[in-house]
Amino acid sequence: MKPEYIVVGGGVVGCAVAYGLLKAGHKVTVLDGGDSAHRASRGNFGLVWLSSKGLDAPHYAAWTRRSINLWRNLADELEELTGDNLNLVQQGGYDFHFCEQEMAAKVRQYEALREQLGTDHPYEIWDRERLLAEEPEIGPEVVGAIYGPEDGHVNPLKLLRTYIAAIQSIGGKVVAGVNVVDASKDSSGRFEVLLEDGTRYHSDKVILSAGLGAATLGPKLGFVAPVSAQKGQVLITEKLPPNKLKRPSGIIRQVDEGGIQIGDSKENQGLDDSDTLEVTAAIAERAIAVYPFLAQTKLVRSWGSIRIISPDGVPIYQQSKTNQGAYLVSCHSGITLAAAHSYLLPYWLEGAVDAPDLELFSEDRF
Ligand SMILES: Cc1cc2nc3c(=O)[nH]c(=O)nc-3n(C[C@H](O)[C@H](O)[C@H](O)COP(=O)(O)OP(=O)(O)OC[C@H]3O[C@@H](n4cnc5c(N)ncnc54)[C@H](O)[C@@H]3O)c2cc1C
């Protein structure tokens, strides 16, 4: 019999791992919080993105690229299982620049990364003329872009919904609206996971993928779990005709329903996820500098959402030293890494011979 798992946290990270474990033949129960929890998986930007990742952490860049390359397969599989369309598009993306010197400095970082990786880590330098041929609406202040041929985007809400449907369709259990307050090993060596209402669940192994909730639950299982909150504010405009923007960038993309999504603020405001005029105005101003037509486009919605960030921004994959069989899985960029979490992480959890080497992602680095 394969070990049975409880996954604490049913955001995109927990769901990705749960789905992968179910496919590998494990019995899996996902325990997820309610609407009052902070849930990055419901407020993010939807990029499936390689560019700029791991510029000073080559192992993270390589891990991200493995995920990117598995993403088409993941989308096809989830769509086939559920009949949903995730609207995954992987046709490249831009990192826009307003200053030649800043762009050159970024390119030097890419060159250094390529050297460290010893591979053709993909990027192209596009000057303004090259960019205009693809995106004629670009504003006069944009000097060029670093083009990432493997970058793309997806509908992140459909991803989460589809994961949950797929998990249930292949025999997994998702229990939503529950609050895990403790987890420990019982006298038989199995894990006992306690809910606030007194209900107990038992399993051979536990994955802690509770987003910000890991900071509280982690120490109970022997993890440091040094995750902190970073707010991002996001705007969305009225719907525009398709292909108004040919490709996404790290700060602006046209979503599958037609609206232009604008974002990428980074604020350390604790757990305050409110949106503010000051920041949304700054985000909008920068977006208009990239695409001036946005000044005439109606804004329909804005929101704030909290990222889960480790001290160096790189994922944490850690087996507990005091409670063997408990694992902490935490990352920023959980959309991008979903394919790696579904297809590769289960091998690591099971200690398979061909498991990815995730030693450098351990908590020991802090
Ligand atoms: C503004 C913004 C933009 C982003 N853009 C991108 C992007 O473009 N691309 C990308 O790849 N990533 C992006 N991210 C990051 C991405 O959204 C996160 O990495 C990902 O959603 C994290 O998923 P998670 O499952 O770890 O956390 P969450 O989505 O926060 O889920 C954690 C879950 O754990 C549950 N939980 C917590 N504590 C408990 C408890 N005690 N008991 C039971 N359940 C519990 C909560 O209810 C919650 O559902 C963005 C994030 C933000 C905020």
Using brief descriptors, characterize the structure shown:
FAD/NAD(P)-binding domain, binds flavin-adenine dinucleotide, four-stranded antiparallel beta sheet, six-stranded mixed beta sheet, 3 domains, 18 strands, 29% helix, D-Amino Acid Oxidase, Chain A, domain 2, globular, 366 residues, 9 helices, alpha+beta
Could you state the CATH homologous superfamily of the largest domain?
Answer: FAD/NAD(P)-binding domain
Kindly report the average pLDDT value.
96
| Beta fraction | 15-25%
Largest sheet: 6 strands, mixed
Bound chemical compounds: flavin-adenine dinucleotide
* CATH architecture field of the largest domain: 3-Layer(bba) Sandwich
Which value, in Å, is the CA radius of gyration? 21 Å
Distance between the first and last residues' Cα = 36 Å
The structural class is alpha+beta
Task: Describe this structure in a few short sentences.
This protein has 366 residues and is an alpha+beta fold.
Description of the molecule:
The chain is α+β, with helices and mostly antiparallel strands. It has helices at 12-23, 58-82, 100-117, 128-134, 156-169, 214-217, 277-290, 338-343, 345-349, and strands spanning 5-8, 28-31, 47-48, 93-97, 124-127, 144-148, 152-153, 173-175, 180-185, 191-195, 200-203, 205-208, 228-239, 252-254, 259-262, 299-309, 316-319, 326-330. Strand 14 (252-254) and strand 15 form a beta hairpin. It is globular. Bound molecules: flavin-adenine dinucleotide. Flavin-adenine dinucleotide binds next to helix 1, strand 13 and strand 16. Flavin-adenine dinucleotide is lined by residues 8-14, 31-33, 37-41, 43-47, 49, 178-180, 209-211, 213, 217, 232, 234, 263, 305-308, 331-336. This is Glycine/D-amino acid oxidase. It holds the Pfam family DAO. InterPro entries: FAD-dep_OxRdtase, FAD/NAD-bd_sf.
